[in-house]
Amino acid sequence: MSQVDRTREHLIETYRKKAKHYDITSRLYPAPGYPQRGQRLRAVQALGLRAGDTVVDMACGTGLNFSLLEKAIGPAGRIVGVDLTDAMLARAQDRIETSGWSNISLVQADAVAFDFPAEVDAILSTYALSQVPECAEVIAHGAAVLSAGGRWAVLDLKVPGSTPGWLAQLGTATVRPFASIDQWIMRRPWEAIRAAMHEELTDVSWTELFFGTAFLAAGSRGPGTSGA
Ligand SMILES: C[S@@+](CC[C@H](N)C(=O)[O-])C[C@H]1O[C@@H](n2cnc3c(N)ncnc32)[C@H](O)[C@@H]1O
Asked: What's this model's pTM, rounded to 2 decimal places?
């Protein structure tokens, strides 16, 4: 089994254990009082959604973005939620049924292998893409299927620029006890995400949130982008 496969297995096992209580424990993520809801709202706003739009929520987990997305696209729109972990998708399905939404489909897939539907209006990924080693590829695959003017937005955690390595390690260890922290810090996935957004999209914005502990990257598919 390759290192990537081992990491993936570990992720699935971790999220299987977390799924049941994820909606409650994620309120403490990455720390109690963290403005996660506000950050989600900003990410959804960055998509510039209109009624009837089709949105992919990549690594959607239990579907914590669904209500915000539903509000923006309405019943004529469509959401495709994608995630690697069956147990997280099962919670997402519960949410869909409880809320009575009929325009959301769920797909169990690895982000990098997901076959995006054609002509997607927007793609969102929150607190997840930095866990995917091939995050740049995922951004490229998504950009290629965006409709003209379609938007990609990524919200995720990062290590603040001015933080000494040892402190970053300590801080991140407390919030990500499940992943290989050293690898995550060493990989600096937010840099790969930023570079891929610039490579694949136009009109890219990069906003650091909450003292540089998170970022919101967003961009459009325009005539000058490689996906076009
Ligand atoms: C911290 S949760 C975030 C879930 C959701 N996006 C949210 O904002 O609450 C990370 C999610 O990413 C999923 N994930 C991790 N690696 C993945 C991959 N390679 N492909 C698809 N999903 C993945 C996990 O199964 C988990 O549900």
From this structure: 0.93
